[in-house]
Write a structure and sequence with these properties.
207 residues; alpha+beta; six-stranded mixed β-sheet; four-stranded antiparallel β-sheet; 5 helices; 14% helix; globular
Protein backbone atom coordinates (compact mmCIF):
# COMPACT_ATOMS: atom_id res chain seq x y z
CA UNK A 1 0.00 0.00 0.00
CA UNK A 2 3.05 2.25 0.20
CA UNK A 3 2.60 2.65 -3.56
CA UNK A 4 -1.01 3.83 -3.25
CA UNK A 5 -0.68 6.40 -6.02
CA UNK A 6 -0.31 3.57 -8.55
CA UNK A 7 -2.65 1.11 -6.88
CA UNK A 8 -5.59 3.43 -6.20
CA UNK A 9 -8.24 4.07 -8.83
CA UNK A 10 -9.69 7.35 -7.60
CA UNK A 11 -9.16 10.45 -5.52
CA UNK A 12 -12.31 11.49 -3.67
CA UNK A 13 -12.16 15.03 -2.31
CA UNK A 14 -14.32 16.94 0.15
CA UNK A 15 -15.11 20.63 -0.23
CA UNK A 16 -15.94 23.16 2.48
CA UNK A 17 -15.18 20.82 5.39
CA UNK A 18 -13.70 23.62 7.54
CA UNK A 19 -16.04 26.44 8.56
CA UNK A 20 -13.45 29.22 8.36
CA UNK A 21 -12.39 28.10 4.91
CA UNK A 22 -16.00 28.16 3.69
CA UNK A 23 -16.38 31.62 5.24
CA UNK A 24 -13.28 33.03 3.54
CA UNK A 25 -14.89 32.22 0.19
CA UNK A 26 -18.34 33.41 1.32
CA UNK A 27 -19.73 29.90 0.86
CA UNK A 28 -22.26 28.12 3.09
CA UNK A 29 -21.21 25.03 5.00
CA UNK A 30 -23.03 22.03 3.49
CA UNK A 31 -25.14 19.89 5.78
CA UNK A 32 -23.75 16.75 4.13
CA UNK A 33 -20.22 16.31 2.79
CA UNK A 34 -19.69 18.01 -0.57
CA UNK A 35 -17.85 15.55 -2.79
CA UNK A 36 -15.88 15.86 -6.01
CA UNK A 37 -13.32 13.70 -7.82
CA UNK A 38 -9.78 14.29 -9.03
CA UNK A 39 -8.17 11.95 -11.58
CA UNK A 40 -5.19 9.88 -10.50
CA UNK A 41 -3.26 11.47 -13.38
CA UNK A 42 -3.14 14.61 -11.21
CA UNK A 43 -0.77 12.92 -8.73
CA UNK A 44 2.82 14.07 -8.36
CA UNK A 45 5.38 13.48 -5.63
CA UNK A 46 8.46 15.37 -4.49
CA UNK A 47 10.94 15.89 -7.28
CA UNK A 48 8.22 16.89 -9.74
CA UNK A 49 6.94 20.45 -10.13
CA UNK A 50 3.45 21.89 -9.96
CA UNK A 51 2.58 23.23 -13.41
CA UNK A 52 0.12 26.09 -13.82
CA UNK A 53 -2.59 24.87 -16.22
CA UNK A 54 -3.61 26.67 -19.42
CA UNK A 55 -5.93 29.68 -19.05
CA UNK A 56 -5.23 29.91 -15.31
CA UNK A 57 -4.13 33.20 -13.77
CA UNK A 58 -5.01 32.35 -10.15
CA UNK A 59 -3.61 29.01 -8.98
CA UNK A 60 -4.37 28.47 -5.28
CA UNK A 61 -2.84 26.14 -2.69
CA UNK A 62 -4.99 24.02 -0.34
CA UNK A 63 -3.23 21.72 2.14
CA UNK A 64 -5.16 18.62 3.25
CA UNK A 65 -5.00 15.38 5.21
CA UNK A 66 -5.50 12.39 2.91
CA UNK A 67 -6.90 9.00 3.94
CA UNK A 68 -5.43 5.97 2.19
CA UNK A 69 -8.05 3.23 1.96
CA UNK A 70 -6.84 -0.26 2.84
CA UNK A 71 -9.68 -2.55 1.83
CA UNK A 72 -12.74 -2.62 -0.38
CA UNK A 73 -16.02 -1.46 1.10
CA UNK A 74 -19.40 0.04 0.40
CA UNK A 75 -22.19 1.20 2.72
CA UNK A 76 -19.69 1.17 5.55
CA UNK A 77 -21.17 1.84 9.02
CA UNK A 78 -19.69 4.82 10.84
CA UNK A 79 -18.57 2.52 13.65
CA UNK A 80 -16.42 0.47 11.26
CA UNK A 81 -14.94 3.23 9.12
CA UNK A 82 -11.53 3.58 10.73
CA UNK A 83 -10.89 -0.11 10.03
CA UNK A 84 -10.80 0.81 6.33
CA UNK A 85 -8.02 3.38 6.77
CA UNK A 86 -4.64 1.85 5.98
CA UNK A 87 -2.75 5.08 6.59
CA UNK A 88 -2.58 8.74 5.70
CA UNK A 89 -0.90 11.14 3.31
CA UNK A 90 -0.28 14.85 3.19
CA UNK A 91 -1.78 16.32 0.04
CA UNK A 92 -2.31 19.54 -1.86
CA UNK A 93 -5.57 20.17 -3.67
CA UNK A 94 -4.20 22.66 -6.18
CA UNK A 95 -7.04 24.71 -7.61
CA UNK A 96 -7.34 26.93 -10.65
CA UNK A 97 -9.47 29.39 -8.75
CA UNK A 98 -10.42 31.53 -11.71
CA UNK A 99 -11.74 28.42 -13.46
CA UNK A 100 -13.82 27.31 -10.46
CA UNK A 101 -15.51 30.69 -10.49
CA UNK A 102 -16.81 30.00 -14.00
CA UNK A 103 -19.11 27.47 -12.30
CA UNK A 104 -19.55 23.79 -11.59
CA UNK A 105 -18.35 21.14 -12.26
CA UNK A 106 -14.73 21.46 -11.11
CA UNK A 107 -13.20 18.77 -13.32
CA UNK A 108 -10.67 21.01 -15.04
CA UNK A 109 -10.05 23.48 -12.21
CA UNK A 110 -9.14 20.73 -9.73
CA UNK A 111 -8.20 17.83 -12.01
CA UNK A 112 -5.45 19.16 -14.24
CA UNK A 113 -2.08 17.40 -14.42
CA UNK A 114 -0.02 18.04 -11.22
CA UNK A 115 -3.12 19.19 -9.27
CA UNK A 116 -2.62 16.62 -6.50
CA UNK A 117 0.88 16.65 -4.99
CA UNK A 118 1.09 13.97 -2.29
CA UNK A 119 3.55 12.69 0.28
CA UNK A 120 4.64 9.17 0.94
CA UNK A 121 2.37 7.00 3.08
CA UNK A 122 2.06 7.98 6.75
CA UNK A 123 1.37 4.94 8.92
CA UNK A 124 -1.47 4.91 11.43
CA UNK A 125 1.06 4.51 14.22
CA UNK A 126 2.84 7.69 13.10
CA UNK A 127 -0.44 9.64 13.26
CA UNK A 128 -2.34 8.10 16.19
CA UNK A 129 -4.94 10.90 16.40
CA UNK A 130 -5.90 12.11 12.92
CA UNK A 131 -8.64 14.26 14.43
CA UNK A 132 -6.07 16.46 16.18
CA UNK A 133 -3.31 17.10 13.66
CA UNK A 134 -1.81 20.44 12.67
CA UNK A 135 -1.79 21.17 8.95
CA UNK A 136 0.49 23.98 7.85
CA UNK A 137 1.71 25.46 4.58
CA UNK A 138 4.32 28.06 3.64
CA UNK A 139 4.89 29.90 0.37
CA UNK A 140 8.51 30.98 -0.05
CA UNK A 141 8.99 30.43 3.68
CA UNK A 142 6.01 32.55 4.77
CA UNK A 143 3.24 30.74 6.67
CA UNK A 144 -0.08 30.90 4.82
CA UNK A 145 -2.17 28.06 6.25
CA UNK A 146 -2.06 26.87 9.84
CA UNK A 147 -5.05 24.79 10.89
CA UNK A 148 -6.02 21.66 12.74
CA UNK A 149 -8.05 18.64 11.69
CA UNK A 150 -10.06 19.04 14.91
CA UNK A 151 -11.91 21.82 13.06
CA UNK A 152 -13.38 19.51 10.42
CA UNK A 153 -17.15 19.89 10.02
CA UNK A 154 -17.54 16.20 9.12
CA UNK A 155 -15.07 13.87 10.80
CA UNK A 156 -13.24 10.97 9.18
CA UNK A 157 -15.79 8.19 9.95
CA UNK A 158 -18.64 10.37 8.67
CA UNK A 159 -16.77 11.10 5.44
CA UNK A 160 -15.92 7.45 4.75
CA UNK A 161 -19.42 6.25 5.57
CA UNK A 162 -21.07 8.94 3.45
CA UNK A 163 -18.84 8.43 0.41
CA UNK A 164 -19.21 4.64 0.57
CA UNK A 165 -23.00 4.98 0.33
CA UNK A 166 -22.57 6.15 -3.27
CA UNK A 167 -19.29 4.69 -4.53
CA UNK A 168 -17.31 1.61 -3.56
CA UNK A 169 -14.00 2.43 -1.91
CA UNK A 170 -11.07 0.28 -3.02
CA UNK A 171 -7.53 -0.36 -1.75
CA UNK A 172 -5.24 2.55 -2.55
CA UNK A 173 -8.02 5.09 -3.05
CA UNK A 174 -7.31 8.47 -1.48
CA UNK A 175 -9.85 10.65 0.31
CA UNK A 176 -8.92 14.33 0.68
CA UNK A 177 -10.65 15.61 3.81
CA UNK A 178 -10.76 19.36 3.12
CA UNK A 179 -8.55 22.36 3.74
CA UNK A 180 -8.36 24.86 6.61
CA UNK A 181 -8.52 28.60 6.03
CA UNK A 182 -5.71 30.60 4.49
CA UNK A 183 -5.78 29.40 0.90
CA UNK A 184 -4.09 31.73 -1.53
CA UNK A 185 -2.34 32.16 -4.87
CA UNK A 186 1.03 30.93 -6.03
CA UNK A 187 2.97 31.95 -9.10
CA UNK A 188 5.75 30.61 -11.29
CA UNK A 189 9.10 30.19 -9.50
CA UNK A 190 7.51 30.16 -6.04
CA UNK A 191 7.95 27.28 -3.60
CA UNK A 192 5.31 25.54 -1.48
CA UNK A 193 6.37 23.70 1.67
CA UNK A 194 3.73 22.04 3.83
CA UNK A 195 3.52 19.59 6.68
CA UNK A 196 1.46 17.67 9.19
CA UNK A 197 2.56 18.32 12.77
CA UNK A 198 6.26 17.48 12.94
CA UNK A 199 5.63 14.09 11.38
CA UNK A 200 6.25 14.88 7.74
CA UNK A 201 6.75 17.76 5.35
CA UNK A 202 7.07 18.08 1.59
CA UNK A 203 8.10 20.78 -0.85
CA UNK A 204 7.20 21.61 -4.45
CA UNK A 205 8.25 24.31 -6.89
CA UNK A 206 5.69 25.98 -9.16
CA UNK A 207 6.37 26.22 -12.88
Amino acid sequence: MENFIKLGRKIVAVARNYRKHAAELNNPVPEEPMIFLKPTTSYIQEGAAIRIPPDCDRLFHEVELGLVIGKKGSNIPVSDCLDYVYGYALALDMTARDLTEVGLPWGISKGFDTACPVSKLITRDALPNPHNARLWLKVDGVIKQDGNTSDMVHDIPKLISYISRFMTLEPGDLILTGTPEGIGPVKTRQNITCGIDDILQMSFNVE
